[in-house]
């Protein structure tokens, strides 16, 4: 027994003194065996560099075993799927995650530091490749710098201030005390990451060949800077009430510095505005480098709604107004695989995503080979506008909103079929609603399948229907809605010839840049002049600039833009921006971070999830209810969830590393 005790004790000590994630010492000796052959030629160096990207998860994996908490950890998704299958965003809100067990998030933390170490190794040894040209060296160094900055960005957004190791590849044979270090502050991390991206952008190519789609470009670096600067300017990280409430006592133990600034600095909004404008101003051959994806109107395109007077440009041809394009196809085809992925002008940075394709099965009808359970809460449904841009609380007589009765005739527009017999709540809604939401009596073409009964489907979620709760304890929608945004009309999961269109996940797209710009300008109270790289920008709360940016997103969706009254109040304008981001960027991994940085997380997440009554047949289905599941009451809302905890193993190894607030126990 004593011998057994000593063996167990030895193993415990060994685990305590194992490598820290930011060192990647576990892999050190394996890498060293191969390293000399890696750096003897440019070709090998490039292969080593692109191999680093394997340590970044598929960005389209936002629901299951993901690098990010994603939609299931916020108010834009809900499911009855068992968390044991890797739905770790759901685990987070059900209080199943702690510093001892972070599931896939610990893998992301570890892999990010592996990527950083490999980048640093490349920086140290790149000059050993004798055949490398100066041009090759500059691009390899720039790409590696981008990858390292991206790894830090991933840590910063999910875990908070990282340990920044600079260019150092720390030896593996030191005493543990030699590896002890402190975390950066949030401000220090932002400046470091942005400076690295600025340096990378100098030598990154402006465009990539089609066969290199997904590799970072100058625009990707600039777009990432714009997002980081916007986060940095937002209330949670810029001395707002949320910063004081969540981080007011959180100081670095080594020097008493606040991890998150407690002092407001308006100039951060100016930097964010300038960073977004830089992306907007990029050109390629004299034309804009990026623009919103649009499809020209044709005979199937519905006419713009009549009687809109709030937006004087609304009936003007695109891009000044909303006329001349098909709003349904312009929005839907950018996500469902119809647009040519590698040439979509809206992608500032996107990558092919097999996981995104596979995950469409989570929402696909049970009757058609799917799992029917990736649900949207009623809150999302209610925030989609009416077709004329009005809210459901202020609908017009011509395009009314109603929660009684059903449509009496079928409508066909832009290749979409809205069945007769659809609940009136879903009638007269904006085009992004039809592109994004699966609801009861919704039509699913599934046109690649040639098996009778598995295409041209009308799907219902009533209790006793083929896709209803009666058929499965987990594979049903608890709210009566599913996310349909990434599903192409030809996609099918069952039957002969069933196939799915390839898809890309938009890490940064131009609509996001436009909304970033509008938000940053809206938060300015005076004129600022800022420097980005070699360019100088002068920015202020210019209402015409805000209108031009915001209205492009609205017009592309077929909706009126801003009125003078909307622009008169910065607070009201912020509310409109928040609502627009919720809808335009639905299930693109923004909402989780947005509600936190705005300081509204606790408020919006405290609202119970609601939906239709899936415990009823059709007669009682169309009633707003809280789903009949204990999960609703079990959802955790706590300011400690602003960041995930650092892995406990790291905290134990490194005494100088402080844990995130609320996770100390």
Describe this structure in words.
It contains 23 helices and 12 strands. It has helices spanning 2-16, 28-38, 42-51, 88-93, 104-125, 134-159, 186-203, 218-233, 241-247, 267-280, 327-332, 354-359, 378-383, 431-436, 510-522, 543-556, 564-568, 570-584, 591-597, 601-605, 618-621, 631-634, 648-653; strands at 283-284, 287-288, 347-352, 411-413, 416-418, 437-439, 442-444, 457-459, 481-483, 504-509, 528-532, 535-539.
Helix content estimate: 25-40%
Strand order of the largest sheet: 1-2
Largest sheet: 2 strands, antiparallel
If you average the pLDDT, what whole number results? Answer: 93
Question: Number of helical segments?
Answer: 23
Residue fraction in strands? 5-15%
Q: Which value, in Å, is the CA radius of gyration?
A: 26 Å
> Structural class of the secondary elements?
mainly alpha
| Uncertain spans | 1-18
Distance from first to last alpha carbon: 32 Å
**What is the tally of beta strands?**
12
Label the overall shape: globular
């Amino acid at each position: 027994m004593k011998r057994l005790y000593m063996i167990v004790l030895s193993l415990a000590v060994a685990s305590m003194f194992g490598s820290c994630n930011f060192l990647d010492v576990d892999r050190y000796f394996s890498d060293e065996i191969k390293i000399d052959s890696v750096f003897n030629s440019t070709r090998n160096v490039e292969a080593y560099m692109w191999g680093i990207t394997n340590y970044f998860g598929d960005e389209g994996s936002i629901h299951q075993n993901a690098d990010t908490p994603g939609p299931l950890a916020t108010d834009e998704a809900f499911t009855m799927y068992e968390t044991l299958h890797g739905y770790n965003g759901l685990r987070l809100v059900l209080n199943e995650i702690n510093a001892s067990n972070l599931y896939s998030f610990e893998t992301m933390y570890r892999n990010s530091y592996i990527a950083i170490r490999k980048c640093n190794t490349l920086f140290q040894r790149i000059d050993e490749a004798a055949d490398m040209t100066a041009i090759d060296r500059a691009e390899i160094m720039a790409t590696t710098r981008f990858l390292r900055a991206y790894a830090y960005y991933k840590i910063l957004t999910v875990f908070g201030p990282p340990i920044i190791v600079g260019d150092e590849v720390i030896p593996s044979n030191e005493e543990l005390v030699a590896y002890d270090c402190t975390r950066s502050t949030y401000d220090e991390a932002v400046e470091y990451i942005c400076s690295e991206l600025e340096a990378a952008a100098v030598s990154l190519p402006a465009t990539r060949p089609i066969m290199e789609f997904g590799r970072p470009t100058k625009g990707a670096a600039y777009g990432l800077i714009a997002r980081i600067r916007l986060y940095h300017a937002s209330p949670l990280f810029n001395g707002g009430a949320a910063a004081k409430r969540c981080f007011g006592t959180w100081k670095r133990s080594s020097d008493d510095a606040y991890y998150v600034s407690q002092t407001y600095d308006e100039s951060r909004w100016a930097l964010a505005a300038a960073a977004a404008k830089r992306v907007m101003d990029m050109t390629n051959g004299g034309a804009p480098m990026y623009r919103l994806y649009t499809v020209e109107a044709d005979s199937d395109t519905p006419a713009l709604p009549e009687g809109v007077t709030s937006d004087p440009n609304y009936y003007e041809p695109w891009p000044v107004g909303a006329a001349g394009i098909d709003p349904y196809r312009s929005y839907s085809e950018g996500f469902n695989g119809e647009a040519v992925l590698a040439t979509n002008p809206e992608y500032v940075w996107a990558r092919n995503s097999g996981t995104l394709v596979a995950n469409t099965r989570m929402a696909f009808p049970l009757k058609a080979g799917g799992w029917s359970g990736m649900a949207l809460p009623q809150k999302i449904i209610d925030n989609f506008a009416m077709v004329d841009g009005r809210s459901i609380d202020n609908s017009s007589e011509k395009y009314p909103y109603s929660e009684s009765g059903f449509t009496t005739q079928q409508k066909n527009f832009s290749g979409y079929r809205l069945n007769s017999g659809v609940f009136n709540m879903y009638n007269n809604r904006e085009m992004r609603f039809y592109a994004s939401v699966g609801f009861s009596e919704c039509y699913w073409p599934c046109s690649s399948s040639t098996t009778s009964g598995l295409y041209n489907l009308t799907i219902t979620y009533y209790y006793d229907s083929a896709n209803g709760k009666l058929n499965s304890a987990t594979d049903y929608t608890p709210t009566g809605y599913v996310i349909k945004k990434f599903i192409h009309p030809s996609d099918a999961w069952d039957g002969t010839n069933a196939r799915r269109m390839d898809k890309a996940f938009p890490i940064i797209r131009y609509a996001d840049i436009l909304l970033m710009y509008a938000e940053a300008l809206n938060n300015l109270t005076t004129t600022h002049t800022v420097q980005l790289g070699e360019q100088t920008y002068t920015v202020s709360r210019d209402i015409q600039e805000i209108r031009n940016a915001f209205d492009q997103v609205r017009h592309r969706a077929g909706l009126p833009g801003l009125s003078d009254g909307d622009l008169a109040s910065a607070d009201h304008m912020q509310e409109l921006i928040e609502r627009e981001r919720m809808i335009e960027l639905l299930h693109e991994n923004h909402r989780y971070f947005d509600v936190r940085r705005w300081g509204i997380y606790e408020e919006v997440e405290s609202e119970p999830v609601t939906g239709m009554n899936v415990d009823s047949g059709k007669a009682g289905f169309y009633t707003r209810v809280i789903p009949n599941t204990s999960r609703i009451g079990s959802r955790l809302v706590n300011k400690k969830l602003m960041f995930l905890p650092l892995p406990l193993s790291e905290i134990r190894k490194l005494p100088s590393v402080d844990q995130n607030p609320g996770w100390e126990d």
